[in-house]
């Protein structure tokens, strides 16, 4: 009886110690955990691979250690333990066997569906061993974070059959060994029969193509060192729907497009944050036609990228590249619904001539000064437009953009805070909603019509006043009088030649002699002899030829006055006189000609030989004899002023 009691006491004591030890390693939770997606397979803000929720377990708590305490390592932390998931961390190389022992207790009937291991140090063989154990248990989602692989990496045999695994996620892998066969490492993962595989933040440089048709639907190799050679000529990923290769070393977009050409089910491709560019020679792109969502953000792509896009793409991300404009010869992307082209260098909105179905456009953080009004006419299906944080120039061209927001009722995302004037300096910082210009100041057509009407009215009124009051004639006479006075004032007496004897030589037709003798001579010559006029009938020297007399009179006269009329152009001698006077004008560079238009001369009456007269009348100002008697006084004053000069005393004719 005593021995039985002692045995019972020892058993009870051991049980108490065992329970206390378990409490230090295991935290039990009353909550259930359900798995709704491959939470670590796809990064935030990207395409999610959704799965059905797991049914809740009927048991609230699950004890994962056996009663004989087979696993007992003080460095472990049981971070989370529910009926459906288990998370262990801080697993050193010395405790790997304990981990393998623990995992060996799981089987197909276990309730654990999700297992997470964090901060692990393990040899390569041990890693393959516990991976193989997990592969053939009830676990569907296996996450490994911060793992360091020790010892040499060599080829291992792996049995992929009879698994419940749906998604394997490995993040932040470091390998202490530098020299090993890459195939030995990559072949383990390329042949896995899971729907989703993630290996990220691990600096892997390649990934093998599966040797046989794979069931991969989601592959995530973000933040590694993969090059354009990855999955080249790979034909066994025909079920793949999502491929994420962001933040790698991809360069040639044409090669990446060729990689997708054999992925018959690919819908989403993320190749952002790489070094992608398009050759100046224009590489041919060969995308799979099923591709609906493409992320090309944060690369080195230029305007030519629009010639290398999948024709059936629906969601396109081109933000943070080197794009300056959308070329006008772009192939039409009829299926495109969302376009993100923020953080580039565009100076205008792209328009929808090539994107007829576009519903969402993000063009923030570009260099747009004045959005084109053509955008709103071509983009009728736009539901949302992100156009803020651009250096808007507040001018008339911006009115259509502002009116778009007023009519659209909230289709401008970020309005009004993100839409601010940058130019001109006087309006810098003003929100577009507070910027207003009148219709007249912005409507060029209306402004032009008003200007033309006002100009026509002013010209008409001015013309009427000029005709009614004969203002132009008075202005012309005053201008001629002023010019003559100016020339006389700046003429030096010593420059006058001593041979001058007359103030003026008068050339006229005999048919106009009545006007010359009754009006011209009496008004110019005074009784005091202050003005000397040379007339052919009075001053020609007998015995000399007429031509010689004409030349002598012109040379001895300060001015030559020509009385122009239809009779003048019919006189042969008048033509001679005009010819010699014109010769003196050019040979002496003098301003000696005065033209008096006695009667209007129609152009058709001037003979062809009178080309000098036509040139003089076109280039020189002439005095027109006014018919109104009230204007005669001003006419004679201008004429006298034109011939007024002090002749040398010795030259005067007595």
SSE diagram, text form:
Elements: H1 2-25, E1 77-81, E2 85-91, H2 96-103, E3 114-123, H3 124-135, E4 141-150, E5 167-175, H4 182-190, E6 196-200, E7 218-220, E8 242-244, H5 253-260, E9 268-270, E10 293-295, E11 315-317, E12 338-340, E13 360-362, H6 374-378, E14 384-386, E15 392-393, H7 399-408, E16 421-423, H8 439-442, H9 444-469, H10 471-489, E17 502-507, H11 513-524, E18 533-534, H12 536-539, H13 546-556, E19 557-564, H14 572-587, E20 593-597, H15 611-619, E21 623-624, H16 632-643
Helix pairs in contact: 2-3, 10-16, 13-14
Describe, in short, the structure shown:
By secondary structure, this protein is of the alpha/beta class. The protein contains 16 helices and 21 strands.
Overall morphology:
rod-shaped
Ends apart, CA distance between termini: 183 Å
Number of helices: 16
Strand content: 5-15%
Mean pLDDT: 78
SSE class: alpha/beta
Number of strands: 21
How big is the Rg? 52 Å
With strands numbered from the N-terminus, the spatial order across the biggest sheet is: 1-2-3-4-5-6-7-8-9-10-11-12-13-14
Main beta sheet strand tally, sense and closure: 14 strands, mixed
């Amino acid at each position: 009886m005593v021995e039985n009691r002692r045995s019972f006491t020892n058993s009870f004591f051991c049980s108490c110690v065992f329970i206390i030890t378990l409490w230090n390693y295991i935290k039990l939770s009353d909550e259930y955990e359900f798995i709704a997606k491959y939470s670590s397979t796809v990064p935030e803000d990207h395409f999610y691979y959704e799965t059905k929720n797991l049914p809740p377990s009927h048991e609230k708590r699950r004890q994962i250690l056996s009663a004989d305490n087979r696993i007992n390592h003080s460095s472990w932390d049981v971070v989370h333990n529910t009926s459906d998931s288990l998370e262990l961390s801080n697993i050193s190389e010395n405790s790997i066997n304990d981990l393998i022992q623990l995992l060996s207790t799981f089987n197909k009937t276990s309730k654990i569906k999700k297992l997470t291991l964090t901060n692990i140090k393990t040899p390569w063989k041990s890693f393959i061993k516990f991976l193989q154990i997990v592969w053939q248990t009830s676990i569907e989602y296996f996450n490994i974070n911060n793992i360091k692989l020790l010892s040499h990496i060599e080829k291992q045999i792996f049995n992929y059959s009879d698994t419940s695994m749906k998604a394997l996620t490995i993040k932040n892998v470091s390998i202490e060994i530098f020299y090993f066969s890459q195939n030995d490492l990559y072949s383990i993962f390329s042949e896995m029969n899971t729907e989703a595989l993630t290996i990220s933040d691990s600096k892997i440089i390649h990934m093998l193509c599966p040797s046989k048709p794979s069931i991969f639907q989601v592959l995530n190799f973000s933040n590694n060192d993969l090059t354009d050679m990855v999955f080249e000529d790979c034909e066994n990923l025909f079920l793949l729907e999502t491929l994420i290769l962001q933040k790698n070393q991809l360069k040639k977009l044409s090669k990446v497009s060729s990689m997708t050409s054999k992925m018959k089910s690919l819908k989403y491709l993320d190749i952002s944050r790489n070094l992608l560019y398009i050759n100046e020679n224009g590489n041919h792109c060969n995308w799979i036609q099923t591709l609906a969502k493409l992320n090309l953000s944060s690369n080195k792509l230029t305007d030519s990228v629009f010639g290398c896009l999948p024709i059936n793409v629906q969601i396109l991300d081109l933000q943070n590249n080197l794009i300056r404009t959308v070329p006008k010869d772009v192939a039409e992307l009829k299926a495109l619904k969302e376009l993100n082209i923020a953080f580039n260098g565009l100076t205008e909105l792209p328009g929808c001539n090539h994107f007829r179905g576009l519903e969402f456009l993000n063009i923030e953080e570009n260099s747009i000064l004045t959005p084109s009004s053509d955008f709103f006419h071509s983009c009728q299906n736009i539901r949302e437009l992100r156009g803020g944080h651009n250096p808007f120039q507040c001018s008339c061209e911006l009115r259509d953009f502002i009116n778009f927001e007023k009519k659209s009722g909230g289709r401008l995302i970020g309005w009004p805070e993100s839409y601010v004037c940058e130019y001109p300096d006087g309006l810098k910082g003003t929100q577009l909603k507070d910027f207003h210009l009148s219709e007249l100041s912005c409507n060029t057509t209306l402004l032009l019509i008003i200007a033309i009407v006002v100009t026509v009215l002013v010209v008409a009124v001015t013309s009427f006043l000029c005709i009614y009051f004969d203002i132009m004639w008075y202005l012309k006479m005053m201008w001629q009088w002023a010019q003559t006075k100016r020339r006389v004032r700046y003429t030096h007496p010593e420059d006058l030649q001593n041979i001058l004897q007359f103030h003026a030589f008068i050339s006229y037709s005999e048919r106009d002699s009545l006007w010359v003798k009754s009006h011209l001579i009496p008004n110019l010559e005074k009784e005091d002899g202050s003005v000397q006029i040379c007339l052919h009938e009075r001053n020609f020297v007998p015995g000399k030829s007429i031509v010689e007399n004409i030349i002598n009179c012109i040379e001895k006269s300060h001015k030559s006055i020509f009385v122009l009329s239809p009779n003048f152009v019919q006189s042969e001698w008048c033509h001679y006189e005009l010819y010699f006077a014109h010769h003196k004008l050019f040979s002496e560079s003098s301003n000696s000609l005065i033209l008096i238009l006695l009667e209007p001369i129609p152009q058709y009456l001037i003979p062809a030989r009178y080309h000098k007269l036509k040139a003089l009348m076109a280039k020189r100002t002439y005095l027109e004899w006014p018919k109104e008697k009230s204007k005669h006084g001003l006419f004679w004053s201008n004429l006298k002023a034109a011939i007024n000069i002090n002749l040398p005393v010795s030259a005067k004719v007595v």
